[in-house]
Structure formats: structure tokens, C-alpha cells
Design brief:
Blueprint lengths: L5 E2 H7 L5 H9 L3 E3 L9 E2 L5 E3 L2 E2 L9 E6 L15 H5 L6 E2 L8 E7 L2 H8 L7 E7 L5 H9 L2 E2 L2 E2 L4 E4 L4 E6 L6 H8 L4 E9 L2 E2 L7 E3 L2 H11 L23 H4 L10
Parallel strand pairs: 8-14
Antiparallel strand pairs: 1-3, 2-4, 4-5, 6-8, 6-16, 7-8, 9-13, 9-14, 10-11, 12-13, 14-15
Length: 270
């Protein structure tokens, strides 16, 4: 039974209601109950416990896991804050509580996952996991060989240098790029550094799932897709430590000081 227990803040975080830190705050404020009793910080819960916040049940017992692929239109905000206009939750209007895995910039469109499974969220978002995300990008100037080379080999933004990545020219002003990191507005910042402006940006793949639905529509992931996805992310750590950069040997440490400093690991998709 012990292995099925989770700390209350982790349980709340995995429902998508809020972060673990925010969960600690609302627990301290006495807004959470477990089976009708106000708990203390550090309390553990089982799947059979009834957890409520402000009197509202946050997860049904044996709740069915939801995994959606959604083609987000430009102009939709990837937030669960229902006070924000054009938020993704209201737009989809799904009958049960779901939340996005990561985000897409408001001006961008394309594939994003929606789920109620906080466990898979943690695995996909950890910085060290190196999961591929593929985009098509249209810019406001002719693409040169120099542009492709520079984008591929790393661009200095946000006090670091982007990882080497695959970049392919597909027309005079459009290219394809595959990233394994998620710096804040990364693709737009990379282009801006080289004097280009992004006029359209679409995410067309996340790991093994490719975009195959019209803008504004969503579909359930198939059992085969979910099985493959779980296989691909299985080696990924779910812990907070996994988001920290991998330590280099001491003798090489000075070469990587900026890349390995957690202050430079800023997440926030494109």
C-alpha cells in the first residue's frame, strides 16, 4: 500500500490544479481536505482518498486518463487560468479537467498535448530528457546557407548558446527545425539574432506524434501512440532533479560553466 501513497502537494500538482509550491500554500491556508479532514503539510494520500479544494473534488477515484493531440490556433493562450481571455481550456471545452503539456506562444500554432495525467507531464517537460519537437517556420527574408548553418550550430540567446539542432530549408522563406530544448521564445529569438523576423510558426511534431488534424480540432491519442510515447519517455526521470543540467567532470567544468548553471535553464516553448 505504501508504494501507492503520494505526498499531497505532488498529488494536487499532478491533477494540473496548480504547482506543488502553490499546493503547499493552499494546504497551509486550510483550503484542502482529505476525506473531509483538513490535513497538515507532508500528508500522504492514496488513490482511494477523496481530495477536495475549497470543497470541490479535484480528481474522481479511478479517473480515466485523457491524452489529446490539439492543433492550437494562433491567438489562443496556453494557460489554465480561466480569467485569461482566449485560454486553451475554454477553447477546447472538454467535459473533464485537462491541461496542456508545456506551451506554445500565443502567436504560434500547431501541436500541443492536453491531458489530466501529471505524471506524463513531468516526464516530457524535464530539460534533460532531450525529447524532439519539430516546427515549420516562415520568416520575412530570403533564407541563406549562412542562416541555416548558424541556426544549426547554436545561437547565443538568454545568456547561453542554443544546442545544435537539425535545420532544413524547405522554400525561399520557410524552414524546418527540430529542437530538444525549450528556451523562452527560442525560435523567434534565434531568428531575431540573425536579423530575421518570424511571420508564421507551427509545431508539427512532438516526440512520436505528428500533427494530422485541422487547426482548432483535437483528437484522442491512440493506444498504440500512447504505448510508444510511454516507451520513449520511460528512461526519463520524473524528479525535480532531472530538470537540472548534467554535471560535467571537474577537469572540464570551466568550459561549461554557463551551460551547466541552472540559472540559464529557462523553459517556455516557442
Amino acid at each position: 500500500m505504501e508504494e501507492n501513497l503520494k505526498r499531497l502537494n505532488k498529488f494536487i500538482g499532478e491533477t494540473g490544479f496548480c504547482s506543488r509550491r502553490e499546493a503547499d500554500k493552499i494546504i497551509e491556508e486550510g483550503r484542502v481536505t482529505i476525506n473531509g479532514i483538513v490535513p497538515e503539510l507532508g500528508t500522504k494520500v492514496s488513490p482511494e482518498d477523496e481530495v477536495r479544494i475549497d470543497g470541490k473534488l479535484i480528481r474522481e477515484k479511478n479517473e480515466k486518463m485523457v491524452y489529446l493531440a490539439f492543433n492550437k490556433p494562433a491567438g489562443i493562450e496556453c494557460t489554465t487560468n480561466l480569467e485569461v481571455s482566449n485560454n486553451i481550456v475554454d477553447y477546447i471545452n472538454y467535459p473533464s479537467r485537462i491541461f496542456p503539456i508545456g506551451r506554445l506562444d500565443k502567436a504560434s500554432e500547431g501541436l500541443i498535448f492536453m491531458t489530466n495525467d501529471g505524471d506524463i507531464v513531468n516526464k516530457i517537460l524535464r530539460a534533460r530528457n532531450n525529447h524532439e519537437k519539430e516546427y515549420t517556420v516562415t520568416v520575412n527574408k530570403l533564407i541563406t546557407d549562412r542562416f541555416i548553418e548558424k541556426m544549426s550550430n547554436g545561437i547565443p540567446i538568454l545568456d547561453t548558446v542554443t544546442r545544435k539542432c537539425k535545420v532544413e530549408k524547405i522554400s525561399s522563406t520557410t524552414f524546418k527545425i527540430v529542437l530538444t530544448q525549450g528556451l523562452n521564445r527560442q525560435i523567434r529569438r534565434m531568428c531575431e539574432y540573425l536579423g530575421y523576423g518570424v511571420t508564421a510558426l507551427k509545431r508539427i511534431r512532438i516526440i512520436n506524434i505528428s500533427l494530422d488534424i485541422p487547426v482548432g480540432r483535437f483528437r484522442d491519442l491512440t493506444d498504440a501512440e500512447i504505448k510508444e510515447l510511454n516507451t520513449l519517455i520511460e528512461p526519463s526521470s520524473k524528479t525535480e532533479e532531472a530538470s537540472l543540467p548534467k554535471q560535467e567532470p571537474v577537469k572540464r567544468r570551466t568550459e561549461f560553466i554557463k551551460r551547466d548553471d541552472p540559472r540559464y535553464k529557462k523553459r517556455g516553448d516557442y
